[in-house]
Records
---
Amino acid sequence: MIISNMEEIPGRPVVRHLGIVQGSTVQAKNVFRDIGASLKNLVGGELKSYTLLMNEARQGAIDRMKEEAAAIGANAILNVRFSTSTITQGAAEMLAYGTAVIVGDDRDG
């Protein structure tokens, strides 16, 4: 499945538009990550445990979006975007959404 934040794939015509697809996941903070993050806040720098958490959430949302697109026969998702929102204290949603399409073969061969 082709995933792109572009509106089209160069050389691959959109044959059919199937509509918007989305995938989301809600992640809660981990008490051990919070302790490490609190210590890191004192000295500054990247909160690597939270970076990992967000990467895992983003991949989970993409995987669910791909499943939804595949279920309706898409072979590509275009104009992909991400959004986050706080659900409750210590938990956030990662949402991935885009346009499911069927793209044709490469025109150049």
---
Amino acid sequence: MDAMFVIANGEQVAARVPATLEEFLVAHGLLPRSVVVEHNGQAVAPSEFAARRVAAGDRLEIAMITAGG
């Protein structure tokens, strides 16, 4: 894996890619089950995080899941 960049929530972020989406999230301090992710414009089910590959230049939109009333 090489240090490259992906675009996460509109900002360039250094990342060790290629990696799985799950590896990317954990490396950036995010719990995979606490977020929803769009990868290159496509919604990704949490069950796909371990198989979905992230490469340099990919675009991610990551939102935290919150509970409340």
---
Amino acid sequence: MIHYILQIIAFQLLFLVTYDLFLKKETFFNWNRAYLLITPILSFLLPLIRLDFIRQNIPTAYTIQLPEVLITDSPMQVHLLPEVVIGSESHLSSYISLIPVFGYLWYLGVVASLFLFLYKVFKILNLRRSGTKVNTKNITLVSLPNTTTAFSFFNTIYIGTNLSEIKKTNVLLHEKIHVREYHSIDLIFFEILRILFWFNPLIYIYQNRIAMLQEYIADAKAIAETSKKEYYQNLLSQVFETEKISFINTFFNHSLIKNRLVMLQKSKSRKIFQLKYLLLLPVVCMMLVYTSCTEDANAQSIENSENIDTSRSLLIQKIEAVKQQIAVQGNVSPEEEKALKVLSALVNGDVSNEQYQGITGALEIPFGVIEKVPVYPGCENLTKVEAKRCFSKSVSQFIGSEFNTEIGKELKLSGRQKILVKFKIDNLGNTTDVHARGPLLALENEAIRVINQLPKMTPGVQDGVNVGVMYSLPIVFEIKE
């Protein structure tokens, strides 16, 4: 859910940046209105779209990638880089604990926003009751005594009695266009989004942009029906009261008057500039590429589950076929029997079965499915996530303190030297099968020496049986000149 919300915010930001940079100053008001109404809806839908021909399946990793360890030639200076969670473990696992808290905050915000909305509606109803109503064709005119307020809400226009007749004429002309164009529906749409997504500042920016655009639309159509000079003068003289309600079309919005005057004097945009709206296509395409390559956690786990079941059945069939081939050839050697049992145990997943006794030392369980991860001394009695973090930190500190930093001077090295080390914590908690790959054999040997000195650990456990787990660790040796 959190990932979905972050995608929505990111997409809305991209849509708004595109609008402000390329479309905001154009006089294609109806096109801009459609853009501002459609793109928020797209931002909700696009994260849900997965295109199979774009999606790239990332294979599940069966080796734990430990954080990179940075070692310098200055003694005891160890820099721990942030932990990176990859492989079969979801990248959202660290957020799971935040979901209940976020849920309570969201409900609280929705309730507060809803009460604020109802309060604004109550203010409008009070104004309607306090004024004198005159019903005309499709429009209700409410005269508000002793005020210069002027605004419209759906098919009702509210206008103060203290306005001069000339100003009333221009205001009515302007507000009738708001009513005729159903502008209140646009604002209510964003008001609903503000209630549901009160924490998203981009919704407020969207509502501000649509309110400004509605004024441009009403001005453009009103000026065609009256004197341009008189309309300008009327706008310039606006020092009247304003009802600060986010979902009404108020005529006397001082912050918008300058922008309205600028837009009124602007020449109509050339039709060729309508091609700017084609920018929406590459923007949407980029979003589709991202969403199609980003697996939803639930969908991925269901799909993976189905794939695992299918693969398990095929593997079992192949193992049986290998057994039959070996039986045809003659006797089965102990090594062959052990290898078959290891394969069978990994496929079936039931390593505690009596038939697999004697081969648990050869088992290597994927980290993403293991019940209990190996535990570094001093990291006991922690949760799986905390134990993993403690393990990474302890290993990094151990390597930083034990690595021979003088080797850089001896070999006359400079810059950053990266060594990739792989090792296994076996079913007894010992470090075994250490391999290293680096730019120099001496660095590889030093890395292997240090890893082999790791203390004995509490082994990983699966189905109540101690099993081995493979690790991968990049070590960066930085030589300061």
